[in-house]
Write a structure and sequence with these properties.
354 residues, alpha+beta, Creatine Amidinohydrolase, Chain A, domain 1, 3-stranded antiparallel β-sheet, 19 strands
């Protein structure tokens, strides 16, 4: 079933049309990425609206939608209202998670159909990836692995976190990335105790841990990976913490499969870290889904009491963060199957000293 047909399957009574305003849902439905556009889906027909900057590529690449240009006197509202009239739409499901209050108020005032919050159902299909999506994500992770291998050769004592971040971004693009999955996290020394620290002017020193959290995007689909490496040497305490995190990750990955409750997988990693005496220093969830966005549902965290679906793609990223000292995070990406999972991250996980 094509993705546009999945969206049409939602039109069973509560709504008879969908208004796709987020880049991610448009990409999912049209299987092509345009930065600025709006789409309408109905059982009678589907239309995709964009301006002159994108109209040629949209017309040449998008199937299943009638592609129409906006601009000048013909704006998005008129195009949407034309579709409402032509397709007999009375209720439009919209993505409340992606519209601002101002945008929603404008649509409610100007559109000739009732708007119904519908984000959860529009979003829901993306939890389980199709085979072609998995192939794109494997490619994104392959690029990310190559970038990690290369950036290890570029780390030097005395370079700043910002300089290393620039090298990492270069390596992601050089090895085939079509974009960044997110802004990379590159921190060193005591800054590694901040899970989402921001690269700065701090110079890398002997005896530092460096944490790099990064991912390439490939044709719109994300990868995600974290590695913590030591510069020159690692102390006994650094090695101990690293090995606890690695043990927690390996145990949780071994238990990860479709049908297992999300919080139970999180709990496996969390217990190992707590039993080692570091329970207070692991604050975030064990993992999250990813795809067209770097953070998607469902999640492998303490709040998810639902079984994980097959072909969800989830990160595996426990960590320990000791304020003022250092932190360690190790992250892979796994594809959940009914029999287990496929870890598509191929970079080594042993403690690397550069």
């Amino acid at each position: 079933m094509r993705n546009i047909e999945k969206y049409q399957s939602l039109l069973t009574g509560e709504v008879d049309g969908l208004l796709l305003t987020s880049r991610f849902s448009r990409h999912y439905g049209a299987e092509f990425d345009i930065a600025e556009a709006v789409a309408v889906v109905s059982k009678q027909g589907c239309r995709y609206f964009t301006d002159s900057r994108y109209i040629e590529s949209a017309t040449n690449s998008i199937q299943g939608f009638e592609v129409l240009e906006v601009g000048g006197k013909v704006g998005f509202v008129q195009r949407i209202n034309d579709a409402i009239r032509d397709f007999g739409i009375t209720t439009l499901g919209y993505e409340e998670a992606y519209l601002t209050a101002g945008e929603l108020q404008a649509y409610e005032k100007q559109l000739s159909a009732k708007l119904v919050p519908f984000n959860e159902k529009i979003y829901g299909f993306r939890a389980q990836k199709e085979e072609w999506e998995l192939e794109l994500m494997k490619k994104a992770q392959e690029i990310t692995d190559k970038a990690f291998t290369e950036v290890l050769t570029r780390i030097r004592v005395g370079m700043t976190e910002l300089e290393l971040q620039a090298e990492l971004i270069y390596c992601l693009y050089k090895n085939g990335g079509t974009g960044l999955a997110f802004d990379p996290i590159v921190v060193s020394g005591p800054n590694t105790s901040m899970p989402h620290g921001v690269a700065g002017e701090r110079k890398i020193q002997e005896g530092d841990f460096i944490t790099m959290d990064f991912g390439a995007a490939y044709m719109g689909y994300c990868s995600d990976m974290t590695r913590t490496v030591a510069v020159g040497y690692a102390t006994e305490e650094m090695e101990k913490v690293y090995n606890v995190v690695l043990e927690a990750q390996k145990a949780a990955i071994a238990a990860t499969k479709a049908g297992v409750i999300g919080k139970d997988i999180d709990g496996i990693a969390r217990k190992i870290i707590a039993d080692a005496g570091y329970g207070d220093y692991f604050g975030h969830g064990y993992g999250h889904s990813l795809g067209l966005e770097i953070h998607e549902a469902p999640n492998l965290n303490m709040r998810n009491d639902q079984p994980m679906p097959p072909y969800a793609v989830c990160s595996a990223e426990p960590g320990i963060y000791l304020p003022g000292k250092f932190g360690v995070r190790i992250e892979d990406v796994t594809i959940l199957t009914e029999d287990g999972n496929i870890d598509i991250t191929n970079s080594p996980k042993n403690l690397i000293i550069v």
